[in-house]
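# nightly structure sweep
# worker-07 picked up a monomer target from the shared queue
# config: single-sequence mode, recycle default, output format = structure tokens
# input follows
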Amino acid sequence: MFNLETFDIKLETNFIGRNFIYAEEVDSTNSILLSKENKKYNIDGTVVLAEKQNKGRGRKTRVWYSARGYNLTFSILLSSKEYFKSKVNLLNFVAAIAVAHSVENLYQLRCELKWPNDVLINKKKIAGILLESVSSGNKLEKVVIGIGLNVNQITFHGNYNVEPTSLKIELENQRINRETLLAEILNNFEETLYRFVYNKKYILNEWKEHCSMIGERISITDGDKEIFGIFDDIDDDGFLLLKTRSGIEKIRFGDVTLSLCF
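# output follows
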């Protein structure tokens, strides 16, 4: 059971997570915050945490499976227009950096960030991030950032794009206090979000400092399409710049893996 009192003591934010909604079971925490039906879900900085998601999802409608009560599956709502002025795609990076910094600060485990939205430890996936939004015409109304983080789960079933792991596994069976961890992530998220507003270069540089794939030969798949090249850089919008035989190609979507071909 998630201890709300312990979590509240550790939370040091001004607005992220101050409207906190805890649920035993939902279809999807992202879906709750994307809905327009309930006003209490439309407050800037609202966080929804669920012990179980029946329809949790990752990129490309993939299913995100998380054992009840072992991990952190939550979503953060942003509705202030100051975050939507430009480079909204970088909010993915804001979340990834917040998760990485929190894990590194609390447990001294080095995290690697994998484009576009994964957090890895020892080349295994510890967390995934899904950014979704609601627009009215050309006007962006809100962005929801869903985060799934493997905490105390030690067995995983199914086929995975990247082999999963958890903090408990990486810390040799040490059980993690989820309340402390979630508060640390939200504290870091708010601080990193402020940096995003005033210094987007920091976000780009910090993300790249945690990405070991830059300069490596990679393949990128998007549906039936596969392209090979060298991970040259990311641009100011967070898109991947791939060096191919015909020049630099900007990649907006796709799954990245290391490759021997080029």
